[in-house]
Amino acid sequence: MNILESIRLAMRGLLANKMRSILTMLGIIIGVGAVIALLSIGQGAQAAITEQVQGIGSNLLFVIPGTFRQGGVAFSMGSLASLTLDDAKAMADPNNCPDVAAVSPEMTRNAQVVYRNRNANANVIGAAPEYVFVRKAEVDQGTFFSAQDLSSSGRVAVLGGSLATDLFDAESPVGQTIRINRVPFHVIGVLAERGGGGSSVDNAVVVPISTAQTRLFGIAPGRFGGRAVSVITASAVDEAHMDSAMTQITDLLRVRHRIQYQEDDFTVTSQKDILGVLNQITSILTVFLASIAAISLLVGGIGIMNIMLVSVTERTREIGIRKAVGAKRSDIMLQFLIEAMVLSILGGLIGIAFGGSAALIVTVTGVLVTKVSLQSVALAVGFSLAVGLFFGLYPATRAASLHPIDALRYE
Asked: Phi/psi of residue 193, each to 5°?
C-alpha cells in the first residue's frame, strides 16, 4: 500500500467522525494561533522600542546618578543626588570633553498643569536650551526658550504636542498662560509630536531647569556645587566618538567628585546600551509568553493521542481484517500515524490563520504594529508537526502490534 492510499484511508477515518476530529484539533489550533500572535506582538513591540529610541539620535549619552550593574550594563540607583548643574556646565566645556557636542541637564517631576477650566496631570521636564538639539526635538509652533530664560529663571514653557491638544484643542497655545503647580507660565512654543502613544515628551511641558529647581520643586544645592539634577543628557560629536566621549565624561566627573579608589557615584551609558537591555527584556518576555502558549500544543497533542487510542479500539476488527488480507505491520502503523499528522497539520494551518488574524486586529486597533515573521510561522507549524508525530506514534504502534486473530475476535 502506497503513501497516497494511506492518506486516503486516514482522511476517510477522520471524516467519519467530523465533530470529534474538530474538537481534537482545537488544542493545536489554539496553541499555534497563540504562539504566532504572541511572537508577532513581541516582535512588533521590539521594533517599536527600537524605532523610538533610535528616533532621538544614535549618538546620545546619559549620565545618571548612582551605580547599579546587571549583565554588564549599569543602571541608576535613582534617589542619589550626585549630579549637579555645575557638572553639566563642566561637561559642556570643550576643553574638558572635546568629543561632546552638546549637554542638557534635566530633571523630571509630575505636576498639575492648568489652563482655564482644563487641567492635566503631566510630566514637567526642566532642561537647558540644548534640549532640542540633544533630544532631536522639533518645535512645531513658536520657539524654544533661550539661554537668557535659563539664566534668569524665566517662567516660560514649551508644551508637548499631545498636552497642547488636551489643554487647548484647536486654539493656539502660543502666547497663553498656564499654571504649573499654581505658578503661572507663559507658553512660548509647542513641540512636534513624536508619536508612539507613550512618549513622555508628547505628554510633557518643558521649562528652564533653573526655573523648575527654584520656583517649582525647591531643589537644594548638591554636594559638588550647583543644584542637583536627575540626569544629564549629552550628544557626542558623532557615533564614532561615543566611546571616547563616555571616557572623557567619566574622567571629568571622577575628578570633580574626588573619586580615587571607590565606586563611581554616577553612571555613563549610551543609547545603544539601553536599547540592548530593552530588547533583551522584550525578547525574554516574548519567549516566556510563547512558551506558555506552547503548553496548549502539548495539551492538544495529548488530545490527539487519546482520540487515536479510542480510534484504535473502535477499529480493532477493521485492523484484524486488513491484516488477514495481507496488510503489513508498517501499513497499519503508517495509516494511524498519518491520521495523527493530518490532525496536526490541519490544526496548524487553521491556527496560522487564527494567529495572523489576532495580530492583524491588534495592528488595526492602533495599539501596536505587529510583525508576523516567517520564523514564527515555521516554529509554530514545526512544533505542531512534532506534536502530531510524537503523540501519534504510540497509538500507531499499538494498532500495528495487534495480532490479526485477536483483532478479529474483538467485540
From this structure: -70, 135
